[in-house]
Design brief:
Layout: E1 2-4, H1 7-18, H2 25-46, E2 53-58, H3 62-76, E3 80-85, H4 92-100, E4 104-105, E5 116-120, H5 132-139, E6 146-150, E7 172-176, H6 188-192, E8 194-198, E9 211-213, H7 232-235, E10 237-241, H8 249-261, E11 265-270, H9 272-281, E12 286-289, E13 305-308, H10 316-326, E14 332-334, H11 337-344, E15 356-358, H12 362-368, H13 375-381, H14 383-394, E16 397-400, E17 406-408, E18 414-416, H15 429-442, H16 447-466, H17 477-485
Parallel strand pairs: 2-3, 2-5, 3-4, 5-6, 6-7, 7-8, 9-18, 10-11, 10-13, 11-12, 13-14, 14-15, 15-16
Antiparallel strand pairs: 1-9, 16-17, 17-18
Helix pairs in contact: 2-3, 3-4, 8-9, 8-15, 8-17, 11-12, 12-13, 13-14, 15-16, 16-17
Protein name: Bifunctional NAD(P)H-hydrate repair enzyme
Catalytic activity: (6R)-NADHX = (6S)-NADHX; (6S)-NADPHX + ADP = AMP + phosphate + NADPH + H(+); (6R)-NADPHX = (6S)-NADPHX; (6S)-NADHX + ADP = AMP + phosphate + NADH + H(+)
Binding site for (6S)-NADPHX: 62-66, 123-129, 151, 250, 311, 361, 431
Length: 495
């Protein structure tokens, strides 16, 4: 699992380590790793370091110092290194090291033919918005040069991923001591490119992180246990309230997502038409057709979790359905039409104690939070802050969909999903996701694990079907890929 820490926490750890080490040790560790990454990239690009042309954008802080010391190492290996100072000062040790190694100082015009650029304008000490001279220098960087950001792409807020004005777009970001939240969340994540993490020894001084990213190896231990003796009720029964005469497909997609994630049973509850479609496509689902007034969802039988909302109209019937489901003392995933019902009547969450997962995209969250016009854009630019605010305000786990899906818990924890792919931006993919999360909740996972593991599996399934070339997929393709996305469970060897 990858952990990210905000700047204040990294600074405190840095101070604790520096107090125990000779001055400059951390910067040398950082610079050595940075030079190694740049050397590798140069060898890939031009076949060697000797004779390769390297430009360094140098701000006035230690970020510039890292870049200069790395530049000195590259110059000693024979690279032609030119540094472009962009601040009022230049790190003195780094300046001397570079000139001693044969590097030079120049102006932005000298960047015209560089193979690789080290962005050492600002790191975790930068204030929002790059200065005009930095922006002007960035414009002189050749479009095909490899750009390596030092610690953070300059212009990206390391704590939030927000970008104010121009920011560096890196091919690779070499980050030191800890991932910063802003490297993992768009728009910052997109600017960071591939991230190379360098351990400089801060680990023992970092607290338990509130922001994490799951990796493949974290999954097996987080999936519902499949005990040898489990019957279908012990594996989990999910209730699905979805679809309407107008949107019948959502019901079929949600039930499919749940069944293909692995579950004891799905009980579908809904109007006659989506119910017929579900029965026809998924004979394994137990289907209950509700009367027109949508009374008595609970009569469908006992379940361990519910999904409510995909394809639901936010009318009186929709309201009645969401109200009944949220009144039950079991975990609930609320999606799509269910979120529209909640946006109009937030009192439906009053008094609820069982875990709730809300799965909005930015537009739905703007309505839930009753934001003025433009709220959607605001949320997209400040994803982390809004996901956390919503989780706190609703007392629910909030999965904010988007290019980097964030899952926030009411206790303030966040997981950023690393498996997202743009091919998932297709109708019905969210319905499948709510089924996946519902199945994991019914299988006994916490709301936070169900939402974050669900997003992970959903993204991985999309990657498996769309392949490295990112072939287009439709939501039903995800059904077939979901079982392959689910890794071996820890106790599957018992079988
Ligand atoms: N954490 C660790 O353990 C380790 C950290 N290390 C490294 O140190 C870095 C942090 O260094 P830092 O504190 O010196 O700050 P930093 O990011 O270089 O920038 C601050 C200076 O930039 C300027 N400036 C500000 N805003 C600006 C803007 N918008 N546009 C343009 N300029 C702007 C401002 O100067 P001014 O010109 O205003 O005087 C300010 O003084 C960190 O990211 C990592 O690379 C490693 O060496 C190893 C161990
Ligand atoms: K930087």
């Amino acid at each position: 699992m990858r952990h990210a820490h905000p700047v204040a926490v990294v600074r405190a750890a840095e101070a604790a380590v520096m107090a125990r080490l000779p001055a400059g040790t951390l910067m040398q560790r950082a610079a050595a790793a940075l030079a190694a990454v740049a050397g590798r990239l140069l060898r890939r690009r031009v076949g060697r370091v000797y004779g390769a042309r390297v430009g360094i954008l140098v701000g006035s802080g230690d970020n510039g110092g890292d870049a200069l010391f790395a530049g000195a190492r590259l110059a000693r290996a024979g690279a032609r290194v030119v540094a472009v100072p962009l601040g009022a000062r230049v790190h003195a040790g780094g300046r001397d090291a570079l000139t001693d190694a044969g590097g030079s100082f120049g102006s932005a015009a000298d960047l015209a033919d560089v193979d690789l650029v080290l962005d050492g304008i600002v790191g975790i000490g930068g204030r929002p918005g790059l200065r005009p001279e930095a922006v002007a220098a960035l414009r002189r960087v050749p479009a095909d040069a490899t750009v390596v950001a030092v610690d953070v792409p300059s212009g990206v807020d390391p704590d939030t991923g927000e970008v104010c004005g121009t920011a560096v777009r890196a091919d690779v970001t070499v980050t030191f001591g800890a991932f910063k939240p802003g490297l993992l969340i768009d728009p910052g994540a997109e600017h960071a490119g591939r991230i190379e993490y360098v351990d400089i020894g801060l680990g023992p001084f970092l607290p338990t992180p509130w922001l994490t990213v799951l990796d493949d190896e974290d999954l097996p231990a987080r999936l519902p246990r499949l005990a040898r003796t489990a019957d279908k009720y012990q594996r989990g029964v999910l209730g699905v309230v979805a679809g309407s005469p107008r949107y019948t497909g959502a019901a079929v997609l949600t039930v499919g997502g749940a069944l293909r994630t692995g579950i004891g049973m799905v009980r579908f509850v809904g109007a006659a038409e989506p119910a017929d479609r579900v029965r026809a496509r998924w004979p394994e689902a137990v289907v209950t057709v509700l009367p027109d007034d949508a009374r008595d969802v609970a009569a469908a039988g006992r379940v361990q979790a519910w999904v409510v909302g995909p394809g639901l109209e936010p009318d009186d019937v929709g309201h009645a359905l969401v109200a009944q489901v949220l009144a039950m003392p079991v975990p609930v995933v609320v999606d799509a039409g269910g979120l529209a019902v909640l946006a109009a009547d937030r009192s439906l969450l009053d008094g609820r104690r069982a875990p709730t997962v809300l799965t909005p995209h930015a537009g739905e969250l703007a309505r839930l939070l009753r934001m003025p016009p433009g709220g959607r854009r605001d949320i997209e630019e400040h994803r982390l802050a809004f996901a956390r605010r919503a989780a706190d305000e609703f007392g629910a786990t909030v999965l904010l969909k988007g290019t980097t899906t964030c899952v926030a818990s009411p206790s303030g924890l966040v997981r950023v999903n690393p498996t997202g792919t743009p091919v998932l931006a297709t109708a019905g993919s969210g319905d499948v996701l709510s089924g996946v999360i519902g199945a994991l909740l019914a299988g006994g996972l916490s709301a936070f694990d169900a939402a974050s593991v669900g997003a992970y599996l959903h993204g991985l399934a999309a990657q498996l079907v769309s392949g490295p070339a990112g072939r287009p997929i439709s939501a039903t393709d995800l059904w077939a890929a979901l079982p392959d996305a689910i890794p071996g469970r820890p106790d599957s060897r018992e079988w």
